[in-house]
Amino acid sequence: MTDPIPDREQLRQRSADGLQRAVPVAVAVGGVIFAVILAFAVGLRGDLHSGSSLVVVLAGLAAAVAIVMTTVYFARRRADSAPLLFGADRPTRGAVREALRTGGTSDPRIDALARDAARIGRSQRWVVVTAAFVALIEAASLVTRIIEGEWFRAATAGALLVLMGVVAATKTVELRRHRAYLRQPGPASGSGTAA
Length: 195
Prior knowledge:
The protein is an all-alpha fold and 195 residues long. 77% of the residues lie in helices and 0% in strands. It contains 6 helices and no strands. Helix 1 packs antiparallel against helix 2 (51-78), helix 4 packs across helix 6 and helix 5 (125-148) packs antiparallel against helix 6 (151-183).
């Protein structure tokens, strides 16, 4: 049987290259986050010698290092097993998104790419759990801030609560689509992959 994705190795290589290009972006984002937190600490306290400013700066540095190290780790670890879709061109990615949204396609190549994306996407339940956990923490923070009359912090907690709720809901819909797609038979074989 012929491979429905004749350019599989080329897609895999482009996908791995894209993940490797994410490393300098992560370094830049981490640097910007640290710079913003440093500027916030200096603006808040006027100097870096107070204990609270030092804590804020060290927390910002830890966040920046965590972002960079996590991205480097995952980029290297996942370079060989990255989704083939990452290496595809824009029209192909759009066709795969449409196939996942509608539940099928008659093109065997798009179907194979959609199944690959669905299998990988199905393993991301942790995003829903994490977003729901952060939303619960922010809900408690929102109630506390409202009771204490800290309106700016309450607004921040409310915004994060809404953001995490949207992330959890969006990812839940995506996971359901992935499971449903994998239950459907493929166009070439007539039999789907069990979810």
